[in-house]
Design brief:
By secondary structure, this protein is an alpha/beta fold. It contains six helices and ten strands. It has a single domain, classed as 3-Layer(aba) Sandwich (Rossmann fold), CATH 3.40.50. Helix 4 crosses helix 5. The protein binds adenosine-5'-diphosphate and magnesium ion (MG).
């Protein structure tokens, strides 16, 4: 496989009739295996929309979007659900379930992949150890700091060893020190697992982790 994500002439419109608004125009890009690519651009420029399209969380309207050699345009729901299990998501707000412990939150990501409960437990604990939280695996998200919660979210995104990780402003709610830790961790794990990362950020302090930086403005991409 020469590319993990291939986007051709992708456009996206929100709304209908007089209220309709084009938020992505003629996007073309390619993400290669193991690459860490940053996506920057002002608020409202279409970054999250592009990420959710790539994550099969939103239907492709026009153009072509291929993930792991599978076309998303016109794809059936079942195929999209299956593809989503091969993508790790990290959001600005960690999106962890507070009714579950850190270890259970990570283990949830493995549930769709099968395996025994004890195997899932072992892998979740191993992953939490990797992100430096082995002492905290029994805690609930509300008992953790912002940076720790985001590290749990990273563990959850990467525990199933996805080929692609999509991260939407993962450092936005963190102080600069925790933000740095979080991106270093994403970089380190992505290299180890040879996983492609697309990371949306406003944060000029972390530009150095990227192999490449893309810029989007008013729904149009430039490098
Ligand atoms: P960014 O992540 O770069 O801030 P978004 O992709 O979230 O930008 O939004 C791009 C544009 O699309 C914005 O003008 C936003 O208001 C609009 N938008 C986003 N989601 C929706 C939606 N579900 N319905 C209508 N408009 C939307
Ligand atoms: Mg956004």
């Amino acid at each position: 496989m020469s590319s993990t994500v291939t986007v051709n002439n992708l456009s996206h419109i929100f709304g209908k009739g007089q209220l309709c608004r084009t938020v992505l125009t003629d996007i073309n890009l390619e993400l290669r295996p193991g690459e860490i690519v940053l996506l920057t651009g002002p608020s409202g420029s279409g970054k999250t929309t592009l990420l959710t399209l790539m994550g099969a969380l939103r239907s492709v309207q026009s153009g072509s979007l291929k993930i792991l050699d599978q076309e998303l345009k016109g794809a059936r729901k079942r195929k999209l659900v299956k593809l989503r299990t091969q993508i790790g998501f990290i959001f600005q707000s960690h999106n962890l379930l507070d009714c579950l412990t850190a270890a259970e939150n990570v283990g949830m990501a493995l549930k769709l992949h099968g395996g025994s409960l004890s195997d899932r437990r072992d892998r979740s604990h191993e992953m939490l150890k990797t992100v430096g939280l082995d002492e905290h695996s029994h805690k609930h998200p509300s008992q953790l700091s912002g940076g720790q919660k985001q590290r749990v979210a990273i563990a959850r995104a990467l525990v199933s060893e996805p080929k692609i990780v999509l991260a939407d402003e993962p450092t936005a709610s963190l102080d600069s020190h925790s933000g740095r830790d979080v991106v270093n961790l994403i970089q380190q794990l992505a290299h180890r697992q040879h996983c492609t990362v697309l990371l949306v950020t406003h944060d000029a302090r972390i530009l150095d982790i990227a192999d490449r930086t893309l810029h989007i403005e008013d729904g149009r991409l430039s490098t």
